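Fig. S4 source data, part A: sequence.
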Amino acid sequence: MTLITSPAFVPEAQLKKAGSFAALFGNDNPLCLDIGCGIGDFIVQEAKRFPEQNFVAIDIFNQGCRQTCSRIETSELENIRMMRIEARYLLYQYLGKDSLQTIYVNCPDPWPKKSHRNRRLLNDEFLNLALYCLQPGGVLNFTTDFVDYGETTGELLAGDNRFTNRHPTPYTHELGDYPISKYMRRFLDLGQPIYFCSYTKNEGLQIDRP
């Protein structure tokens, strides 16, 4: 495993010592989380679009973290930090109630075998944790190239009355100005659609810590 020495990379011990992401960034700008950032092309595009927001990109694969850090450094953006950490652990241990403005989950592992689908990230347990961390009006964005994952996630989110759908259907193939990662572009170029879900956390919810 390659040691990552990039100034954009935040080891867990550094976050624990700082006490918060606001302390790491040196400001109280709205915080957004990119879960499974891959090689970082999506998050760099998004951080350029919204310089007034802070972005935390996470992945569990060392090589992806290293490449993301390289992209962050090349972009010279100061509003992105990279962590090698599991999503649910980060949400539960370090991100408090109403702490996030946006959560991005782009093309996660679809676990295509039926016997493995209980391992998918998007499930009721994850939604409870995400809703606890999202601020009222905060947004959960999800994309996938896998048909079954797109359809079932759209149904799951559309059936949860704690969310408001930002589109007229449970999912859409129209991405609008949503940044396209290199992974997503590969499928679009082959004529295969991306399933896109975008849902807002409703106001006035009382959500206990999961």
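Fig. S4 source data, part B ends here. The first strand starts at residue 31 and ends at 35.
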